[in-house]
Write a structure and sequence with these properties.
The complex is a heterotrimer of chains A (174), B (169) and C (428). Chain A is of the alpha+beta class. In chain A, 28% of the residues lie in helices and 13% in strands. The mean pLDDT of chain A is 86. Chain B is mainly α. Chain B is globular and about 55 Å long. Chain C has one domain. Chain C is built from 15 helices and 4 strands. In chain C, helix 3 packs antiparallel against helix 4 and helix 4 packs antiparallel against helix 5. Classes of the chains: A alpha+beta (174), B mainly alpha (169), C mainly alpha (428). Chains in contact: A-C, B-C. At the B-C interface, helix 2 and helix 3 of B face helix 4 and helix 5 of C.
Chain lengths: 174, 169, 428
């Protein structure tokens, strides 16, 4: 199957266009229209007044990570290392330990995500067989004053809650 | 009083610039010294109330020609190691001084004997663009035109030389 | 020298030295907010002092504070530190000094003496401007060269070549202008433009020399290294061009020099082509003779204009999201009160002129102030055109730039000289 070639008419060859000035004046009229409209009424700027007005985040949007829990508050993760293996940025570091509450055999003792390395691709969420890691916190701006503050520990990951209702997440995400 | 001070200042600057041009090893330093000389000369012209020459000196020599020279120096981007070895340079300088000094003294003597060399400021309007223009186009029209034809020939020559490579192909 | 003489010297020097510097802030502000509005965004409008944002002007203070307190780095690989420091100073100094011969009001006659209203009372006029424009190339060349940086050298080369080659069409456009005006004194040029053509069109350079105006303005854009000719700073290819290696205050001096150059070239365009300080349709003599009616008209016009301006402030200076006790409304009220105070002050001044002698010194000073204001308004409009063009046109490619300069503008300028000279000779 050959590629379809579409020949576009080349512009800019006529004398009127080669004079530049007429086209320049036309372009300037367009930009001045925008300027004047915005000057008269600056409510019509296409601007979000950011810190005060927050963006609306859809369910499938990949924000900061969190680890989910069972109803009783115990961590769902079984330290299977799927996410760590799958991570293209190598930002997840898991240390597994023995699980004593009888649910499974293993659980993470340490689970750190370096957000400075993370590329927010979402592969960890896709790889997880137990829906233990999610990126549904809706946090999109992470700030800190030192590098270590961007390394999330197990407790940080467990502490944040999902920003959406469970059924919405199921409908949009899965 | 003021004029004399200014004259001395400009003269010293001009001479220093010229000395720097000869003595500096790096071409950029030399070119900048020449700029200093050019500007100081413009100042001297201004002191002689030759306003047009002052402006032309600044526009043509200090502004255009020197910036082209600087441009070329920048274009070549000479490093310290590219500079030529100048082993006998002090001897050359000394020889130059010995040769030129008598000529310079002779010239100064001639200039001093010229009539009217003591006059400082000539009447109002001297050296203005209108006066120079009138003199140039009334009394000196023919030489002026001849000089312009000479420049034209140089221009045509430059164009021919620059375009030669393409014609040869 | 009497006290009046000294006062006049102070006024002239102050005007021609401080106004360009003050206009740096105005230019930067216009550039950034204007860029915002051209692109349907709002531009910097958050920096404030106690909640007063002055429409974004406070951002300039923040920028200045940042640039002053930043670390001034001179990289270790820079060998010629003297030229490295000298370069921004040359750019800044030549830009400021070239404004010195631009007249900002007609010759003021006070107590039987006339004062030329320009920074340096020199009759070199346009030649002075040309010579200092030529000098600013040194700053660029030295900066690019002494940076010892490939981007710096390339940017310096480009911008030096551009400035040198566009000086020629600019000079030739000026030649045809001088043929029309018959003088190089900028003040006489401005006075010439106070006349009326056929009794109803102002005899501006723009009317007499439309082709010359286009050539000069295009060349002036190139001389100030602004879009569409700012390929010396083409970010995508050269990072920042000749000032790549400059930081903190050294960069700020470059930056300010560029904006002063913008101001000066606007002033030059206005003086040469848009009547300089002349109020349209009203020459200096007419204004002095009719100072009282003009003052009376202004007394009516200023409050009316202020009324609409206040409405605009009230409409624009609000938060565009739900907010309790919007502080911006209060801010707007303060601004409006300040502006009304200014208007009342102006009214008092105008009232004084109404009661002053006809054609006396008060009338002369009034006309001078009026012409200064006109001049500044015209310059501001020209600066706006610069900004407008910058946010409309894309950048030229380098070969296109040189072709435009040498193959289009230069022959056009020569043709313009021939045609103009023929017409002038035929008419005289």
């Amino acid at each position: 199957m050959g590629a379809t070639v579409k020949t576009l008419p080349r512009k800019g060859a006529s004398l009127k266009e080669r004079l530049y000035l007429i086209e320049i004046v036309k372009g300037m009229a367009t930009t001045f229209g925008h300027f004047f409209r915005n000057l008269l009424d600056n409510r019509r700027l296409y601007v979000r007044h950011y810190p005060e007005v927050q963006p609306e985040i859809p369910v499938r949007w990949r924000g900061r990570h969190r680890l989910t829990t069972h109803e009783d508050g115990s961590v769902k993760c079984v330290a299977c290392f799927m996410c760590q293996t799958n991570c293209p940025a190598n930002c997840i570091q898991i240390t597994a330990g023995e699980r004593l509450d009888g649910r499974t055999e293993k659980m993470p003792v340490k689970f750190t995500i370096d957000l400075l390395e993370c590329i927010y691709c979402g592969y960890c969420v896709e790889a997880c067989p137990l829906d233990a890691i999610r990126m549904d916190t809706g946090i999109f701006s992470v700030t800190g004053d030192k590098r270590s503050s961007f390394v999330l520990e197990l407790s940080d990951l467990l502490a944040s809650k999902g920003a959406f209702a469970e059924e919405d997440y199921k409908k949009g995400g899965a | 009083m003021n004029t004399e001070l200014l004259f001395n200042g400009f003269a010293i600057l001009a001479v220093l610039g010229a000395v720097g041009l000869v003595l500096f090893r790096h071409p950029m330093n030399g070119a900048m010294s020449l700029v200093v000389t050019m500007v100081a000369l413009a100042g001297l012209y201004a002191l002689l109330s030759a306003k047009l020459i002052f402006a032309l000196q600044l526009i043509v020599y200090a502004g255009a020609i020197m910036s082209l020279i600087l441009f070329i120096i920048m274009f070549l981007n000479l490093q310290e190691k590219d500079l030529p070895e100048e082993s006998g340079r002090w001897y050359y300088l000394l020889g130059g001084v010995v040769v030129i000094a008598p000529i310079a003294l002779f010239l100064i003597k001639i200039v001093k004997t010229l009539p009217g060399s003591e006059a400082t400021i000539v009447g109002g309007g001297f050296g203005g663009i209108k006066e120079v223009g009138l003199v140039l186009f009334q009394d000196w029209l023919l030489p002026f035109e001849i000089v312009s034809i000479l420049l034209l020939i140089a221009l045509v020559g430059a164009v021919v030389l620059a375009g030669k490579r393409r014609l040869g192909k | 020298m009497s006290a009046l003489d000294i006062l006049m010297v102070v006024v002239r020097v102050a005007f021609s030295a401080f106004i360009p510097l003050c206009f740096i802030a105005v230019c930067v502000w216009m550039e950034r907010r204007g860029a915002g509005f051209f692109q349907d965004r709002s531009g910097p409008n958050r920096a404030n002092i106690f909640g007063f944002r002055a429409a974004g002007l406070v951002q300039n203070l923040a920028d200045a504070a940042k640039l002053i307190f930043k670390e001034d780095v001179t990289s270790g690989h820079i060998k010629h530190k003297f030229y490295f420091v000298l370069a921004p100073l040359i750019v800044f100094f030549t830009a400021v000094v070239s404004f010195a011969v631009v007249p900002f009001a007609d010759t003021l006659v006070l107590g039987g003496k006339s004062y030329l209203m320009q920074g340096i009372p020199l009759d070199l006029g346009i030649l002075w401007f040309l010579s200092f424009v030529g000098f600013s190339v040194y700053g660029i060349i030295l900066a690019g060269w002494s940076s010892t940086n490939k981007y710096g050298v390339l940017g310096g080369l480009r911008s030096a070549a551009q400035v040198i080659s566009y000086e020629i069409p600019m000079g030739l456009a000026i030649v045809s202008l001088l043929v029309v005006y018959g003088t190089i004194h900028l003040n006489e040029i401005a006075q010439f433009q106070g006349q009326l053509l056929f009794g109803f069109i102002p005899m501006w350079g723009a009317v007499l020399q439309p082709l010359g105006m286009v050539i000069f303005i295009v060349a002036a854009f190139a001389e100030t290294n602004r879009t569409p000719f700012d390929l010396a700073e083409g970010e995508s290819e050269l990072v920042a061009g000749f000032h790549v290696e400059y930081s903190a205050m050294k960069f700020a001096v470059f930056f300010m020099g560029e904006y002063v150059a913008l101001f000066v070239s606007s002033a030059m365009i206005v003086t040469l082509f848009f009547g300089g300080y002349q109020v349209p349709f009203l020459s200096t003599a007419t204004l002095i003779n009719n100072a009282k009616p003009v003052a009376f008209l202004l007394m009516i016009a200023v409050p009316v204009a202020m009324h609409y301006f206040a409405g605009w402030i009230r409409r624009s200076n609000v938060s565009h999201y739900p907010r309790e006790n919007d502080p911006r409304v209060f801010e707007a009220e303060i601004y409006i009160k300040c502006f009304w105070g200014l208007v009342i002050f102006l009214e008092v001044v105008l009232l004084l002129i109404l009661f002053a002698d006809k054609g006396g010194p008060a009338a002369h000073i009034f006309v001078m102030l009026l012409q200064m204001a006109t001049f500044l308004v015209k310059i501001t409009m020209m600066i706006f055109v610069y900004i407008w063009v910058r946010w409309t046109l894309p950048r030229f490619r380098y070969d296109q730039l040189q072709r435009l300069g040498w193959q289009t503008l230069l022959p056009l300028a020569l043709l313009n000289i021939f045609v103009t000279s023929a017409v002038v000779v035929a008419l005289s």
